[in-house]
Amino acid sequence: MTRKKGTRYTEEQKAEIIKRMMPPNNEAVAKISKEEGKKRPKRFWGTTRTND
Asked: Alpha-carbon distance 43 to 41, whole Å?
C-alpha cells in the first residue's frame, strides 16, 4: 500500500482550522482551503457542519 502525498497538519493547525469553520466565525471551507494553499476546497479531517 502506498501513502498519499499531501500536506501534513499538526494538531494545533487542525484545531485552528476547525475553530475557523465553527460559529461564530463560520468561515467557508473554500476560503480556508485557498488560504492554506489547497487547489480546491475539501473537507478537513472528516468534520461536518450541521444546522442543529
From this structure: 7
- CA proximity to 47, closest of 3, 35, 7, 32: 32
Closest by CA position to 44, among listed 8, 1, 2, 3:
8
Question: What are the pLDDT tens digits along the chain (52 aa)?
Answer: 565 666 678 899 889 988 999 999 999 888 888 888 876 665 655 555 555 4
- DSSP 3-state of 16: helix
Residue ranges per structural domain of the chain: 11-41
pTM of the model: 0.59
Q: Hunting for cell 501513502 — which residue is that?
A: 3
Residue 3 CA to residue 15 CA, distance in Å, equals 23
